[in-house]
Design goal:
- By secondary structure, the protein is of the alpha/beta class.
- It is built from 12 helices and 12 strands.
- Strands 2-8-7-6-5-3-4 form a 7-stranded mixed sheet, with helices on both faces. The chain has a 3-stranded antiparallel sheet with strand order 9-10-12.
- The chain is globular and about 70 Å long.
Length: about 450
């Protein structure tokens, strides 16, 4: 396993290959946006491209090889999250997985409406009723936007539950208070991409399970629970039994794998319904047709294997480096000047994420980053880096004051980040701040 001083082989790739003291040396600290591929992942993908080019549905050897690779990868993914291989569907990535769950729940709602007619006594939903979704105010756009679209199209009703300014989490009681007879899905991310705050998903699932027993007794359909685990995988243990969820989204490029993903569905087709968004050649048991992307799936399987083998080591290494980063920032800039935006007493957060602001009127996050020569990072979600001066809505939801949120930087470290790189970054930030304040 990986010691603190023995970074994974992906080591120096993202940092550029300049000599250690050359001015061009860059330090990548945006691993929540994406990760480089582990060499073993690239190897698995290349091998599949050479040897398993056949159609996985074909009987000859190149096709059978492809089928075997896909089955092995499904096993590896299942093992990583403590689920069953038959409950895993491959997708093009997290966005597709999230959209698939949401659209599937809408379709299931309508299928049940029509099949049951109105024989269910006074509980059967009124004609024209809409499925109701509950989610948090800090979800990724691939959850927030499809839900907002359904509301615009008047296809669904959605409650966006705010996060607590005290714990930084979506509170279980607030979620339960939002439940209606038409509620069909609760979708809450496992960890927030900007702050690293870990959400109380196991407690949410337990409470919804208890509530479902009452609902069934009252003739109401059960509520399903989904978690987008994009940011948590590879950084902390993720186990579907502990989490108690019905759906879980897996995103390869957040754990040193390729840019595809998967969806876990508990008891797929048996306990949990899934309605496809795409129709075609029947692959993935008809749930997600299209000739399988064998090389990418091979890479995803290998990335999952590495997580299963090394997760504790990755986690310990990243936490050590991140804590050192926060120590250095406070030491160099002073505790009064540095505002750590994601430290809520008693709330767990990802081991690799540091969201902080340096107080000062000219130190907006994107301005500071533009002055940096070494640091490669982001002001928030990579997907929003074009919003310029606007502070992250996620940080504002967390109760971070406007002028502090505007100065926010998100640094996320990886498996190969070193303390030496942290020192370089902190020096780089100091020179950037000094320059900006000199210009005043």
């Amino acid at each position: 396993s990986m010691g603190r001083d023995a970074p994974a082989p992906a080591a120096s790739q993202p940092s550029g290959c300049g000599k250690h003291n050359s001015p061009e040396r860059k330090v990548y600290m945006d691993y929540n946006a994406t990760t480089p591929l582990e060499p073993e992942v690239i190897q698995a993908m290349t091998k599949a491209m050479w040897e398993a080019w056949g159609n996985p549905s074909s009987p000859y050897s190149a096709g059978r090889k492809a089928k075997d690779i896909i089955n092995a990868a499904r096993e590896s993914l299942a093992k990583m999250i403590g689920g069953k291989p038959q409950d895993i569907i491959f997708t093009s990535g997290g966005t597709e997985s999230n959209n698939l769950v949401i659209h599937s729940v809408v379709k299931h709602f309508h299928a049940n409406q029509t099949s049951k007619g109105h024989t269910g006594g006074h509980h059967s939903p009124v004609k024209g009723a809409k499925p109701h979704f509950i989610t948090s105010s800090v979800e990724h756009d691939s959850i927030r936007l499809p839900l907002e679209h359904l509301v615009e199209e008047q296809v669904a009703a959605v409650t966006f539950v705010p996060v607590s300014k005290v714990s930084g989490q979506t509170e279980v009681d607030d979620i339960l208070a939002a439940v209606r007879p038409t509620t069909r899905l609760v979708t809450i991310m496992l960890a927030n991409n900007e702050t690293g705050i870990v959400m109380p998903v196991p407690e949410i699932s337990q409470r919804i399970k208890a509530l479902n027993q009452e609902r069934v007794a009252a003739g109401l359909p059960p509520i399903l629970v989904h978690t987008d685990a994009a940011q948590a995988l590879g950084k902390q243990r993720v186990d579907v039994e502990d989490l108690g969820v019905d759906f879980l989204t897996i995103v390869g490029h957040k754990f040193y794998g390729p840019r595809i993903g998967a969806l876990y569905i508990r008891g797929l087709g048996e306990f949990t319904p899934l309605y496809p968004m795409l129709f075609g050649g029947g692959q993935e048991r008809n749930f997600r047709p299209g000739t399988e992307n064998t090389p990418m799936i091979a890479g995803l399987g290998k990335a999952a294997e590495l997580v299963t083998q090394n997760c504790e080591a990755y986690e310990a290494h990243m936490r050590d480096v991140r804590d050192y980063l926060e120590e250095r920032l406070e030491a160099e800039f002073g505790q009064k000047r540095i505002h750590l935006n994601s430290q809520f007493p008693g709330t767990q957060r990802l081991p690799n994420t540091c969201n902080f602001s340096i107080r000062g009127p000219r130190l907006q996050g994107h301005v500071v980053l533009a002055q940096c020569r070494v640091l490669m990072a982001s002001v928030g979600a990579a997907c929003h880096s074009d919003h310029g001066d606007q502070p992250s809505p996620v940080l504002l939801s967390y109760g971070v004051p406007f002028d502090v949120a505007r100065n926010a930087l998100r640094l996320s470290v990886g498996r190969s980040t070193t303390r030496a790189e942290v020192d370089l970054v902190v020096q780089d930030l100091k020179q950037a701040v000094a320059q900006l304040e000199d210009q005043a």
